[in-house]
Amino acid sequence: MTHKVGENDALLVVDVQNDFCPGGALAISNADEIIPRINRLAHAFPHVVLTQDWHPPGHVSFASAHPGRKPFEIIDLSYGEQELWPDHCVQGTFGAAFHPTLAIPHAELIMRKGFHRDIDSYSVFFENDARTPTGLAGYLRERGLTRVFIAGLAFDFCVRFSAEDATRLGFEAVIVEDATRAIDSDGSLALARESLAACRVACVHVDAFARL
């Protein structure tokens, strides 16, 4: 199927930041390889939103904030289960900055998430309590944008939950799969695929776009 980008479509580029790329604090294997694809993809879209993980020091999702705990352990917090991570994307640090090869000068919005110290945020639409909105849905609606294509990091966490929340909010959501990479922590990739299929989120490739 070929996709033609329209005026009501937006590209969401999720968390293409130094800490998620090789050499970063929470590096995803080969994550930097998707950046040329994302740059190419963005040229097809008149509307692009960039998102940025933006944690304060001592964020609740950091294993270092929980004495005796290690990264990738699961703990229970007030809003449910939370996987613990190495300290990453700390506000104002090099690791939180966009990767230097990400080149999308026409992006219309940079939306930061995960800045509340006591709650994590995977989805670009809600914090992890599934109740606290980021404001992105309102922005898209006021702009008349009804379909979102999602690329970036990571497929099995922020990309997955963003796509699922988009569909629940009434947007059509499509993941550009070869413009993403997965962490695949303890079976998270397989779980993401199963959940996305249940939500009827389509996955396509960059070459499916008519204007590229």
Uncertain regions spanning at least 5 consecutive residues: none
The N- and C-terminal alpha carbons lie at a distance of: 14 Å
Tell me the total number of β-strands. 8
Total domain count: 1
Strand % is 15-25%
What percent of the residues sit in helical stretches (DSSP H or I)? Answer: 10-25%
Oligomer: single chain
CATH topology-level name: Rossmann fold
Strands in their spatial order, largest beta sheet: 5-2-1-6-7-8
Radius of gyration from the alpha-carbon trace, in angstroms: 16 Å
What is the chain-wise order of helices and strands? EHEEEEHEHEHE
Basic shape: globular
The CATH superfamily appears as Isochorismatase-like
Characterization of this structure:
- The two termini are 14 Å apart.
- Helix 1 (35-42) links the parallel strand 1 and strand 2 (48-53).
- With 212 residues, the chain is of the alpha/beta class.
- It has a single domain (9-208), classed as Rossmann fold, CATH 3.40.50.850.
- The strands form 2 sheets. Strands 5-2-1-6-7-8 form a 6-stranded parallel sheet. A two-stranded antiparallel ribbon has the order 3-4.
- It has 4 helices and 8 strands, in the order E-H-E-E-E-E-H-E-H-E-H-E.
- Helix 3 runs parallel beside helix 4.
- The radius of gyration is 16 Å and the shape is globular.
- It is 19% helix and 21% strand.
- It has helices at residues 35-42, 136-142, 155-168, 188-198, and strands spanning 9-14, 48-53, 74-77, 80-83, 109-113, 147-153, 172-181, 202-204.
